[in-house]
Amino acid sequence: MLKMRGFLVGLGGGAVGAALVVLVLVLVFNFGETTETVVQGAAETPAVYAPATDAGQTPEQIYQGLSAGVVMVQSDFASSGTDLFGQPQGSQALGTGFVVDNDGYILTNAHVVQDNGQKASSVTIVFNKGGGKTQQVKGEIMGVDTVSDVAVIKVDPSGVDLKPLPLGDSSAVQVGEPVVAIGNPLGYNFSITSGIVSAIGRNLREPNGQAIPNGIQTDAAINPGNSGGPLIDNAGRVIGINTMIASQSGGNQGLGFAVPINTAIRSLEQLKKGGTVQYAWLGVSLKTVTPEVAKAASLTTQSGALVTSVTPDSPAAKAGIKGGGKTVAVGGQPLAVGGDVITAVDGQAIASADELVAFFSTKNPGDTVTITIERNGKTQDVTATLAARPADL
């Protein structure tokens, strides 16, 4: 039985407009029992693949060169309740992943191997060997980063012929460039779809409320089962990990989203060591300054990130940043006003709360930043040393 988790969301920058959509994590099929996986008609893959250095490759060439490095991830969960006879029963989730190096490390989404805080009891990795053949090996979950929806799995490199995928630079992605997605949508194993980058800089909102900045939007068709699979540019480089869709029906409507590969690489390097991912933390709650907010808060600036509250003893508090002291109604919703407006960090202009979140996603605990604020119509700089984000945030 197909199981999808969805939630209502408004995408940053007016991406959705007036239409109400459901953002769906494109994970999973959950089955009551384990099923055998067989690839039908999978193409043979060459032994060696190098990213293109010319104008690019066709989807066919990319699939031929890279599909052997894309895997199916079958996650088994020890218990998902009881059956009609009161006996415990397990479940299985199906997603996608891809090999990133010759040591056997595989990237996928956190929600492929973890459900409601429960980590999978075991994972099976299915490799595409070409010609309708597959190879199944056991994988070990090295770590899960729910903040960026990234997980790292490791397989024994001596047991399989690994074909790592080249990793690109998501900061260089351009709107309109061709991309392909390879994965296992709706159980149709090792499928490829093609499209373009529809937008960049999307603020992806996870079910747990976490925001993933700099998300990549694509019209390449992705569906449940694609989660954790690579979004690849026409030079054969992975630029993102497919993670969710915006849909009114629960299926593909040309609105897919990927975690940027630069974010995933940051998580990968820490999770490979079996640890947790550390994120920089300032300790503020924010609201994007719009003309409506500026009027209600009596601000002279028309853009920036309004500080609505400051966590006690946080880096922001130690730097002297101030939150709101009174509440007004904006658009029928209460808003704390009277706090500072952050307009730049390290000389980089900040036009919205999302831009500030994206900036700090590139920083590490211990980094010192210069924050430009507007207070009572005057501009000043303060210095803050960022801390590690608390585990409960």
Give an overview in words.
By secondary structure, the protein is mostly beta strands. The chain has 2 domains: 6-271, Beta Barrel (Thrombin, subunit H); 280-388, Pdz3 Domain. 11% of the residues lie in helices and 40% in strands. The chain has 6 helices and 27 strands. The chain has helices spanning 59-66, 110-113, 261-271, 291-296, 315-319, 353-360, and strands at 6-8, 22-25, 30-31, 70-77, 91-99, 105-108, 114-115, 118-119, 122-130, 133-145, 150-154, 178-183, 191-205, 211-218, 230-233, 238-247, 256-260, 280-281, 284-288, 305-310, 326-330, 333-337, 341-345, 348-349, 368-375, 378-385, 387-388. The strands form 6 sheets. A 6-stranded antiparallel β-barrel has the order 12-13-14-17-16-15. The longest helix has 11 residues, at 261-271. The two termini are 33 Å apart.
The CATH topology name of the largest domain reads Thrombin, subunit H
Number of helices: 6
Percentage of helical residues? Answer: 10-25%
How many whole angstroms does the radius of gyration measure? 22 Å
Largest sheet: 6 strands, antiparallel, barrel
Q: Report the CATH architecture of the largest domain.
A: Beta Barrel
How many angstroms does the end-to-end distance come to? 33 Å
